[in-house]
Design a protein that fits this description.
The chain is 27% helix and 19% strand. The protein has helices at residues 33-40, 88-91, 124-127, 137-141, 146-156, 172-183, 196-204, 218-225, 242-250, 294-305, 325-334, and strands at residues 22-29, 56-63, 75-78, 119-121, 129-130, 165-168, 189-192, 209-211, 231-236, 251-259, 284-287, 315-319, 341-345. β6, α6 (172-183) and β7 form a beta-alpha-beta unit. α5 packs across α6 (172-183) and α8 packs parallel to α9 (242-250). The chain is globular and about 60 Å long. The two termini are 24 Å apart. The structure holds nicotinamide-adenine-dinucleotide and zinc ion (ZN). Residues 32, 34, 54, 80, 145 line the site of zinc ion.
């Protein structure tokens, strides 16, 4: 990111490695919609000559003197979020916000990201995970951000056996929220999206109903399908601020609205007073940044190793050259109808 609305290639020094850190070389990378929010929506403010990217699988090139479990040559999964594990916030269970709101998000936010020949990882023992040999370097990239974010949406929604869940927005993140909800035992799952490709893949991951927001008010469409009954949970993974109003209208008393969407613009969320039970409806609204770190990566990787989750349907556009990254990032910005996620394998 050269500045607002401008991307390009730059030369930078290879980062230095502190005692607990690692230097990595990416094996595969993928651009994220969050990179698009950052560059073209100006969502986190101005950034100059910042290396983008927070999704990668990699090879360790160098480790600091205190790193215990990783050595040069190891293949690793890189979580998009790399917290400071000693922080009080981490000890309280919110490592995403170690030393301040969203501060566990370092790559392509407060430091250079993974779209480089070499990148730095803080606290290697806490933030890298060994890549199991059953998982390809390309599939592993989906463990950086798409799988953990979608699953975080389902976890925060506390999806339970037999529940009815609506997922609004079925790009790669929403599709993983569908998959996560199904793995947690959801009964009926409505996937809200307009693109044919995404609808097909949502069904692959277990969506029972597809709702197209271009066909009219989704609240009406879902209440019709539900014969007027509210749903248990709504996960927000796409669309704008208006989706909060829709979600609150759809959930039952005691239900949960779980947002994983990165809200890149606007100032306030519209919460409808009456449907929110005049302030007394026990409808919880939660928004969360995905949890990073080694344990989460290790456990999510087991879903791929044991074939409980197949991420390959997400990978619609595959490239084989670093320079293709630019096309991949622009694809993510323009979202052609057949795109879910581009990935660049570097070898
Ligand atoms: P995406 O743009 O590919 O998918 C969102 C989809 O929502 C798109 O297909 C879009 O057409 C659709 N959409 C637009 N308006 C809609 C509406 N009114 N109703 C329903 N769908 C609508 O994005 P993605 O890569 O899947 O990421 C989703 C969001 O998650 C992005 O904002 C991204 O930045 C964010 N994100 C958050 C985290 C986190 O930790 N919370 C991590 C990664 C990404
Ligand atoms: Zn991301």
């Amino acid at each position: 990111m050269l500045g607002f609305d401008r991307i390009g290639w730059i030369e930078k020094d290879i980062p230095e490695v502190g005692p607990t850190d690692a230097l990595c070389r990416p094996l595969a990378i993928s651009p994220c919609t969050s990179d698009v929010h950052t560059v073209w929506e100006h969502a986190i403010g101005d950034r100059h000559d910042l290396i983008l990217g927070h999704e990668a699988s990699a090879e360790v090139v160098e480790v600091g003197s205190l790193v215990k479990d990783f050595k040069p040559g190891d293949k690793v999964i890189i979580p998009a979020i790399t917290p400071d594990w000693e922080a009080v916030e981490s000890q309280a269970g919110f490592s995403q916000h170690s030393y301040g709101m969203l501060n566990g998000w370092k790559f392509s936010n407060v430091k250079d990201g993974t779209f480089a020949e070499y990148f730095h990882v803080n606290q290697a023992d806490g933030n890298l995970a060994h890549l199991p040999e059953e998982i390809s370097v390309v599939d592993a990239v989906m463990l950086s951000d798409m799988v953990p974010t979608g699953f975080h949406g389902a976890n925060n929604a506390e999806v339970a056996y037999g529940e009815t869940v609506v997922v609004i927005g079925i790009g790669p993140v929403g599709l993983m929220a569908v998959a996560g909800s199904v793995l947690r035992g959801a009964g009926r799952v409505y996937a809200v999206g307009s693109r044919k490709k995404c609808q097909e893949v949502a069904k692959f991951y277990g969506a029972t109903d597809i709702i197209n927001y271009r066909d009219g008010d989704i609240v009406e469409q879902i209440f019709e399908a539900q014969k007027g009954k509210h749903v248990d949970k709504v996960i927000l993974a796409g669309g704008g601020l208006e989706t909060f109003e829709q979600a609150v209208k759809l959930v039952r008393p005691g239900g949960i609205v779980s947002n994983i969407n990165y809200l890149g613009s606007g100032d306030y969320l519209p919460i409808p007073r009456v449907e929110w039970g005049l302030g007394m409806g026990h409808i919880r609204i939660i928004g969360g940044l995905m949890p990073g770190g080694r344990k989460n990566m290790d456990y999510l990787a087991q879903l791929l190793v044991n074939k409980r989750l197949d991420v390959s349907p997400l990978l619609t556009h595959r490239f084989g050259n670093f320079k293709d990254l630019e096309e991949g990032l622009l694809l993510m910005k323009d979202k052609p109808s057949d795109l879910i996620k581009p990935v660049i394998e570097l070898g």
